[in-house]
Amino acid sequence: MILEMKVPSPGESITEVEIAEWLVQDGDYVEKDQAIAEVDSDKATLELPAEASGTITLKAEEGDAVEVGAVVCLIDTSAAKPEGKDDAPSTYEGGDEGGNSENVADNLKKEQEQAPNTGEKAPNPAEKTYASGAASPAAKKILAEKDMDASTIKGTGKDGRITKDDAVKAVPSMGTPTGGNRGSTSSKMSMLRRKVAERLVEAKNTTAMLTTFNEVNMTPIFELRKQYKEDFKAKHGVSLGFMSFFSLAVVRALKMYPAVNSMIDGKEMLTYDFVDISIAVSGPKGLMVPVIRNAENLSFRGIESEVKRLAIRAREGQITVDEMTGGTFTITNGGVFGSMLSTPIINPPQSGILGMHNIIERPIAVDGKVEIHPMMYVALSYDHRIIDGKESVGFLVAIKEALESPEELLMDNNVMKALEL
């Protein structure tokens, strides 16, 4: 029986996918549920499992864009499983502990003895003459003017003589590089990368995007983490990171400034009474933004557990389209890569994105005295069409206040209860 394997729908609104890579070859025997291909949609990279066991015939090439529901391969389910398929062949040819290296050497010797003798001799290197490396009068003049040694140049003239053209090409001129590798390579962008590019350009072209900045003294959070992180991890199995503090600070600020938790829908402004936070994660296939649903109902433990789960799934390529769909606000952390300051681009159709950055000890004025504290720059990019400057600045100040007074504003003055310890 010949089974036609069709492209399943990866998610709502997706009409086509791209064959990123075939994991099997035409004519291979595959087992049911074995991953046979990786396919790219405009939102994620997914594995395509075999629907039955049998011999596979590929109907699409790597890089082909195929519509959802199209046939990409055939599986002959009546084909018998090849004998010894489960026995993995040894690819090590350097011998083993049993002394098989002698057999390898014998085989190599036999191959050399059996190699055909064409009777041709290796060409002798060109003999040097008095002209080898000698510069013509014109070439000498050019080399003298540029203070170059003729011995550093390979001549292309008769018997290796250095010609005027050799001298001209060998002399470096301002702005004209000579020598060195100047090659380039071309590779097709994945569908996911192309979609990210389209969305970024769309955000720049369709939103009135502005960015406002502030700085946060991270000392209070450092002290809380230092005191409670070991107990937190021992009880909950996840680390007490920065993301839970920032997420809860965002939830608080969005309640204070609901316009930031809104988006434009035609001629209307759609404001949400829940907070779905998209977390930008760098995955093997590019940038992904899994969503923490109803963050307003989650505790420190709940957010840290969800961040860990989604990050692992994204980096292992297991994230689904549903897990990346939606989101009312985005947090991106360029600080993990060493970024000091940036202007993050809005994730459409959202209206705001918070950028975290690296933490650096800097001198600041505290009560009229200079003290050194761990400081972080934060940035809020927002759509000025529905968020005014007063709201954007107030939102970022609310973030700053919550992070600098987390015990009071995020933990209701009860750290043990907030951390569920």
Using the CA coordinates, give the radius of gyration: 32 Å
Q: In the CATH hierarchy, what is the architecture of one domain at level 2?
A: 2-Layer Sandwich
What is the CATH topology assignment of one domain? Chloramphenicol Acetyltransferase
Full CATH superfamily name of one domain:
Chloramphenicol acetyltransferase-like domain
CATH class division of one domain: Alpha Beta
Helix and strand element order: EEEEEEEEHHHHEHHEEEEEEHHEEEEHHH
Structural class: alpha+beta
**Helix content percent band:** 25-40%
Please state the overall shape, judged from the principal axes of the Cα atoms.
Answer: extended
Gap between N and C termini: 60 Å
Overall pLDDT level: 83
Poorly predicted parts: 87-105, 107-123
Number of strands: 19
Largest sheet: 7 strands, mixed
Architecture blueprint of SSEs:
Elements: E1 2-6, E2 16-22, E3 29-30, E4 35-40, E5 45-49, E6 54-58, E7 65-67, E8 71-76, H1 101-114, H2 137-145, H3 164-170, H4 191-206, E9 209-217, H5 219-236, H6 242-256, E10 262-265, E11 268-271, E12 277-279, E13 281-283, E14 286-288, E15 291-292, H7 300-315, H8 321-324, E16 329-333, E17 352-356, E18 359-366, E19 369-383, H9 389-404, H10 406-409, H11 415-418
Parallel strand pairs: 12-16, 16-17
Antiparallel strand pairs: 1-8, 2-4, 2-7, 3-6, 4-5, 6-8, 9-19, 10-11, 12-15, 13-14, 17-19, 18-19
